[in-house]
Amino acid sequence: MASMRAVVAERPDGPDGLVLREVPRPEPRPGWALVRVEAFGLNRSEYKTLKGYAGDAVTFPRILGIELVGVVDAVHGDAPAVPPGTTVAALMGEMGRAFDGGYAEYALVPEHQLIALDTTLPWEVLGALPETFLTAAGSLQHLGLQEGETLLLRGGTSSVGLACLELARAAGVRVIATTRSDAKGRRLTELGAAGIVLDGDGFAERARAVLPEGGANGAVDLIGGPAVLETLRLLRPGATVCNSGSLSDVWVIPDFEPIAMIPSGRKLTVFHSDLVHDAQVGGPLLRAVVEQVERGEVVPNIDAVYPLEQTIDAHRRMAANEATGKLVVLPHAATA
Questions:
Q1: Which own/partner pairs from 287-293 qualify as long-range (CB within 8 Å, at least 24 positions apart)?
Q2: Could you tell me which CATH class the domain 132-272 is placed in?
Q3: Residue 73 parent element (H or E)
Q4: CA-CA distances (angstroms) from residue 255 to 11, 159, 225?
Q5: Is the dihedral of CA 23, 24, 30, 33 positive or negative?
Q6: Cα 70 from Cα 106, distance rounded (Å)
Q7: What values do phi and psi take at 149, rounded to 5?
Q8: What pTM, to 2 d.p., does this model score?
Q9: Where are the domains of the chain?
Q10: Is 209 helix (H, G, I), strand (E, B) or coil?
């Protein structure tokens, strides 16, 4: 049986739970295609799985990775949905959770999840796009912002935050972004944010001083937990907060009382990226982003690129909140 290298999560122990192993290469079966993985991005959900937050939803050992890009290597049968040699992306749909994901040289993926792409973008660029930019695009769709309106972006230096900044800026939306770091705030300004607000004590007062009178036209909150209530209070009537992340590692709002805690006329929604795992849904969104990147309208904001054997180092960088942008791994990259 053919083998491959993979980064296996042996236990929920943070980055220390990951081990580089030689494992059997999967074989295509009906409805599933074997993909040669050329790049994958790291995601906070994988970090949370390694922290044990997934509970019984993920069993160990498991090859993590909720997204990948690559080339279809082999299929089962004579009439595959996506033929061998096709450049593809795949994300979510229980990949890296119920079945092995992208942290490997090859991955077996359900055919309905394969998004065919016609592009010459470098693998590290393409690998930075699927989960991050589809989450950003879906979140912004919920807000329906128009050119010239103001977006409040909580958690702006995360990979999804930077993707929101890029897509909103390209659409002519004014972005006020938040961060905990002065240095990262300067980076957000360089990337086109119209204003920066430091999180922490006194945040609301600082934000009101930068936002338009009456508040923001919409917000993407990637911090989660009680921060969402604070974000809601910074909106103008009729505006929406889309909570699409939990960078705070806080999943709930204690003693949440909607009538008492949501300001009148403001709206709260969420975006679940699992909605776009089917190629028929996610394909048009991702292909539109790829075209924007090819035209130079949107930049993927890659923090660092690693070979497969340094995936654990990449996870440590993510766990330490040192990255500003996407961490990407190239499983077949040659190392010195």
A1: 287/115, 287/117, 288/137, 289/129, 289/133, 289/134, 289/137, 289/167, 290/117, 290/119, 290/121, 290/126, 290/129, 292/167, 292/170, 293/121, 293/125, 293/129
A2: alpha beta
A3: strand 67-74
A4: 33, 30, 11
A5: positive
A6: 9
A7: -80, 170
A8: 0.90
A9: 3-128+300-330, 132-272
A10: helix
Cβ(48)–Cβ(55) under 8 Å?
no
Residue-wise pLDDT for 121-164, tens only, equals 999 999 999 999 999 999 999 999 999 999 999 999 888 999 99
Tell me the CA distances in angstroms from 224 to 6, 166, 256, 268, one per residue in order.
32, 21, 13, 12
Which one is the CATH code of 3-128+300-330: 3.40.50.150, 3.90.180.10, 3.40.190.10, 2.40.50.140? 3.90.180.10
What is the average pLDDT across 103-108?
Answer: 98
**∠ CA(137), CA(92), CA(41), 5° rounding?**
75
Which residues contact residue 106 at a Cβ distance below 8 angstroms, ignoring those fewer than 6 apart?
4, 25, 26, 34, 35, 36, 37, 73
Which residue is listed with tokens 């937050």? 53
Q: Give the C-alpha separation, 242 to 59, whole Å.
A: 30
Q: pLDDT for 257-302, tens place per residue?
A: 999 999 999 999 999 887 888 888 899 999 999 999 999 999 998 9
R_g of the chain, CA atoms, integer Å: 20
Pairing status of strand 195-198 against strand 174-179? parallel
Question: Could you report the per-residue pLDDT of 192-251, keeping only the tens digit for each?
Answer: 999 999 999 999 999 999 999 999 999 999 999 999 999 999 999 999 999 998 888 888
Task: Tell me the two tokens of residue 129.
Answer: 């796009």
> Is the Cβ–Cβ distance between 333 and 5 less than 8 Å?
no
User: What does the pLDDT look like over 291-305, one tens digit per residue?
Assistant: 999 999 999 989 999
